[in-house]
What we know:
Blueprint (H helix, E strand, L loop, with lengths): L13 E3 L8 E4 L4 E6 L7 E5 L8 E4 L10 E6 L3 E6 L5 E5 L4 E5 L1 E2 L5 E2 L3 E7 L4 E6 L1 E9 L4 E12 L2 E4 L5 E4 L8 E6 L5 E6 L13 E2 L7 E5 L4 E6 L4 E9 L7 E6 L3 E10 L4 E11 L5 E8 L5 E3 L3 E2 L2 E6 L1 H14 L4 H12 L8 E6 L3
Parallel strand pairs: 3-23, 4-27, 10-11
Antiparallel strand pairs: 1-2, 2-3, 5-31, 6-7, 7-8, 8-9, 12-13, 13-14, 14-15, 16-17, 17-18, 18-19, 20-21, 21-22, 22-23, 24-25, 25-26, 26-27, 27-28, 29-30, 30-31
Amino acid sequence: MKLKVLIPALSLITVALASCNSNPKSVSDSNAKFTVCDFASVDNNTIELPLSDLVEDCQLIRFDNSDAALFKARVIMATDNYIGIRQQTGLPYKLYDRKGKFLCDVGNVGSGPGEYNQPIYDEIIDEKGGHIFLNFFTGNKIMMYDLNGKWIKDIKLPLNINKSKISLNDDGTLSVVQMSFEEKDPFAFCVDMDGKITKQILTPAHMKVGDFNGEIFSYQNGPDFEFFHTSNDTLFAYNAAENRLEPHFAMNFPKENKPIHLYMELPTCYFANCYYWDNEKQRPTGGGTYMIDKKTGKAVKFNLVNDFFGNMPTYYSFNKGYYLRSLEPGSMQEEVEKLLSSGKCPDKDKEKMKELAASLHENDNNVLFIGKLKQ
């Protein structure tokens, strides 16, 4: 996969130069800031980063144990009052309240009205408008439902979109970013509820792809519709109001032995997950996850621990403004037992964690750690 670092035109920017250990390089105009971090200058000593540095709180939610409520999660998202679960292919989208009570399936798998037979690739739960939007691996529609999971309509698009990500705008339109095979097709655009494209950016040459091997990752943890397209090295945001792509973050890697990498933006920082691929063992190896603080510019390599629950090791599972980690009860018990035997659980949390492990039953539905991101 050929990757590029993309810098906006110099006529639009001012540049402040510094090392990543103090302040990353900042490239900005009046509307956006582009941060470049030098990978070689980052201290590779790994720290333990407490989850409380990133989220306001963390709760444990136990889902219903009814047959209808059981799920096999691929991606989880949350809003103030709902939890949505995108399941493995061939299973419907599920909706719960914030206490874990099962509410409904959103549509169903099939080929009839309101049904779908492709993998879901993104979703929006719009509490204010009372709608749920689902889009898919490829196709020419976005499906619209109410908060009871009932199909309202298909928003028919004038083109096929591939591996697309979606976001709801203040004016009620949807923003879409997709993997495009043709420069004449829109890469990023806005569409109204009738499927009419109201704004668009045609596919830049560096965003054009020749097959489905790449991905677009978009976790939308801040106010911007950010995304990382694996055809290049830069985290972008689609500014729908101004109808433009804005570069936000990139790592400056050495030309030799360049790691595979993925970027994520949080309200207070950027994450860069960097690793190497072991062809013999067919698994990732080496590297690590780096946090670049937006205010201080400090870059650190870290392991994340859930200090709300005894410093349990966890991973950076953030999506649409929340920390979300789902576990089967048996797996949770094993993790708690491992934590208690490691000697890393603070004394004040040991009894709490023992009680938690004892309260779990292997035949129960999954449990979910959830915490809202600090702004």
